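G., before I forget:
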Amino acid sequence: MKTSPERGQAVRRGLGPLMVAPATIVIFLVIALPALQLLRYSLNRFDVTDLMISAFTFENYEKFFNDPYYLAVLATTVKISLLCTVLALVLGFPVAYVLAKSQSRFKSIFIILLVFPLLVGNVVRAAGWMTILGDAGFVNAILIRVGLATEPVRLLYTPLAVVLGTTGVVLPYMVLTLQSVMEGLDLSVEEAARNLGANLIQTFRHVVLPMAAPGIAAGTMLVFILCMNAYATPVLLGGTGITMMAPAIYDQIAKASNWPFGSALAIVLMIVTLAAAVVSNKIIQRGYTRTMSS
Amino acid sequence: MNHRHDRRTFLKTTSGLLLAPALGMGSITARAAASCPDVIVGTWGGDYETLLEKNIGVPIIKAAGGNVTYDTADQVSRMTKMRAEKTSRRGSMDVSCLVDTDMFDMNRAAVLQPVDASMVPNSANTMEQFRKPYAIPHIFSAMVIVYNPTKITQAPDSFNLALDPRLKGRVGLSDILYTYVGMTASLAAGDHKAGFAAGTKFLRELKKNQPKVYPSNEAVAAALKNGDVWMTCMWKARALQWKKAGVPVEFAFPTEGALPAVFEAAVMKNSQNKPCGFNYLNAMLDPRAQAGFAATMGYAPTVKNVQLPPDLQSSVGFTDAQLNKFVHVDYETFAEQRPAFLDYWTKDFKVGL
């Protein structure tokens, strides 16, 4: 017969899975179930009158992989997402580092300022970029005023506008993720490294970076996923100059009413995003382990 | 129809009948509204919803004792909901508002209740060319040539002007209106009966003139305002709104004919309140409501018994000669060819512009 503490442990062990059940059920209902529905739709056949005919065919996937246009759209999406993720990391890391080390009484105000853009929708932020990058916008006005251009330079509806706008959207996520991880680190080891003769670059490379690697992994994964699925910013700032996957999916669902092909595009985007996020996470984690052990 | 006629409903209906003369409303409207505690209308948000409430909800339905609840969404969400609820006996909307091409799709999906003319007496006043068995025409406009008069000094008479090398890089098009641009191009090419075929050839020629494609109608307006482009094709109602907002534009009716856009409304087959739905459709065709929409939104009335002030009539309306030049849209061909045309528009026409 079990003693009372043993029974308590057994109950706690049994309670663990039970406690994750509500969250699991919610995730299943709001994420997994719709994704499975999408997967099922992607195997159906498109019909102009009935929207789709129930089938079990891979023709939508074949269409995607045999069409250079959609492969180029996917490649553009991955390239833009990688670029925005790297930019967000490079720009966000110093901010997160300073915030994590800061003992200032204004620290909470800085964090609120950082969160503030998240309170404004992506569309509103894109509208702001439109007034900055438009032909009659702020940047062109400056360029013409200082004599660097005689007529407006096309900045809006270009890949540059999409990269700037998307990086602006995801930057707070990167900073907040890095900062929350760095807050938990013992940064006195950095001082120890400096006392032992390491210069700034060596300290950063061999001490700060490995310690921050879990934060970098989490931040880059989160930001990369957000970039891959960006819709409003590419549409409003890229216009017809650049097409990414989310607007292409919208076109198929909303304009062509081709739900099976739109669903196939969505499944491809999900799988590529998941695979890329997992691979990048593995690379960062592996690099971190190697650095720490060397 | 499964209506329950209990004592309370009977009293509500009869009290509504007693109130009708005092409210100065037509007896049919008042009787229907009084037995319609709530009608749910699926509509776009923004101006359209505001004007529905201002011109129909408050002065007609609520004044007769009824109430309107708006199910606001963009047309894609609304159409998806209509399709998704097809097998449900209890639909979430009584009335759905859509543009004519989308309404045709919904009728093909068999989710609409045919219009019962006896319950929509105002439908007898609608313009014959816009009548459909499954929906009422609410307001309409047509695709016209919109141009900057300081850059194009002679009013254009055809969309073929877009091919003029002098307008290289100065023609702007709205991405969201791609199908209407395609049909306008077919008209300019002289053959709209075969759908997008002639339009596609026209657009291939136009591409050599490096037109600009903008992601929204608002972006086209901004480009016209800052002089980036000098010409586009757009709904006349939109052009009027732009002109009011200070965009330097005039518009011209193309001699080859124009493509109409009719905003329609229909009662859902699975509405629990079909009489209330038809009562609402009838109110949409009320001359007062039609005049209100014309004054604010710039869309022309679809009923013949409305009297607009002469200046408003000349700005939002169309002459008889122009109405005769409206093309009859073959919705079936339009719907069949739309996916292929979208492919061309996305993968070919827009690339590099």
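Chain B touches chain A at residues 76, 83, 105, 108-109, 175, 178, 213-215, 219, 222-223, 226, 228, 335-336, 338-339, 342-343, 346-347, 350, 353 (CB under 8 Å). Residues 1-31 of chain B have pLDDT under 50 and may be disordered.

More on Monday.
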